[in-house]
Amino acid sequence: AMLKLRLLTWDVKDTLLRLRQPVGESYAFEAQTHGLQLQPEVLGRSFREVYGAQNHRFPNYGQGQGLSSRQWWLDVVKETFRQAGVHEDRLLTLMAENLYHDFCSASNWELLPEARETLSWCCQQGFHMGIVSNFDKRLENILARCNLQHHFDFILTSEAMGFAKPDRRIFEQALRLGGVSPEQAAHIGDDYSRDYKAAQAVGMHSFLLQAAGQGEEQNVPSKHILPTLSHLLALVEK
Predict the structure, then answer these.
(1) pLDDT at site 2
(2) Where are the annotated coiled coils located (predicted)?
(3) Which residue of 31, 77, 105, 190 could cross-link 96, Cys pair, CB 3.0 to 4.6 Å?
């Protein structure tokens, strides 16, 4: 039986949009414009390490710890290059500012297969729609540049909210903005704990976008798994 729903909430990264190329390649390309030859693999490894440490020390872009998300990201980029052997401050600052700006542009992002068609169909059906994403304030800009923002009644980022998924408060706020009870809403995302389980914890329905061979998660009934976004169409109705 189809679920009768009024609100659909969506994760963004790796659900609707994904990076066109690995982070290490974007960083290597930026370095190259300043005459530096750095290996994308090295930069990618260094980025993951630095990002992990920064996220651990200053969760959710340093919210409540006196950091702006912009400064949070500039520090990540500079430290990534430092670990790859670049130490000139002026150059580090320049590359960090360029990359912070670049990752806001549509050229760095691409839509996942069927994202645009699925969102358009949901809008035509009359669903209320919102974004619930662990992202900084650039997200609205990115969605606008990828021509997606008009599908959504609201965009909730972890930076603006002050807490990140799987915190239940970001989902509760989405339900308030959508004006619906949890059982009238479903969340769609690609992360088992931050999307699938977190939405279920507030009583929402939940779908996990999971391409074949991604490693089946524990206890996700097949009726909750979306091999592609368009599989949603057969599962929900207004």
Answers:
(1) 83
(2) none
(3) 77
